[in-house]
Model the fold of this input.
Amino acid sequence: MAYLMGVGRQLVEAAKSAPFLEREEERALAVSWKEKRDERALHKLTQAHMRLVIALAVRFRHYGLPIADLIQEGHVGLLEAAARFDPEREVRFSTYATWWIRAAMQDYILRNWSIVRGGTSSAQKALFFNLRRLRAQLANTSGGGTAIVFDRIAETLGVSRSDVEFMDSRLSVPDMSLNAPVSDSDPSVPSQRMDFLPDDGPLPDEIVAGNIDSDRRSGWLADAMAGLSQRELDILKERRLTENAATLESLGDRLGISKERVRQIENRALEKLRRALIDQHPQERRNHAA
Done:
């Protein structure tokens, strides 16, 4: 039970102390949840099956992922099972929920076990979770080499031999941290593997040029806006320079004019800005036209 210490004593104790449900009580809770959406019934039904979630999470602990995360994903699967469960089929809820809990945990493992994701088809999942076991069994019984074992595994799981070889290579090599040191002796070598990753962002000179252009255009706009009246400035700021732009109607009510008049003033101000910018910097118009 040492591997459960990090999960949280309260969670484990709550699961252990939850009473087992008799068939009729379980069915009554499932019916109450399905027909009446009774949250208390859902809580009691799922709480009684958290032992099952923890037991299944323990089986997957060897993949190196936090068991608390596995239990959380299993709980999601448990809730999905409760949402889909049909009490009229006379099947025990634990039998039905086991598939959903295991599927949720396996999906989580496939998403997070490796930086390079594995396949997500049902055949690829079966290969991922059964390769080691089948390889050990066949190696002891078939008496053949690796090629024969791979062929038998491919035939058993319904996948190609190349898929088996690729998955075996992935499972045989541990993931490598990008923060792993590269060289401690040569100061000219980047200290971590992450330092070798290419940066897709803009180059430093492009960033500087962009900042200079942005500052220059901001100055041009400020100069052009100096030629507007106060009302034109107020309307442009409220309509164009704020995150939540004011409506024509609200501005009209505030200024005591019609919304059509606000629209006319806004258009006139924009036209003034356009003309001022073109007159002051005609070369920019030619550059954009080219």
Notes: The radius of gyration is 33 Å. The chain has three domains: 2-112, 122-172, 204-289. The chain has 14 helices and no strands. The longest helix spans residues 204-225.
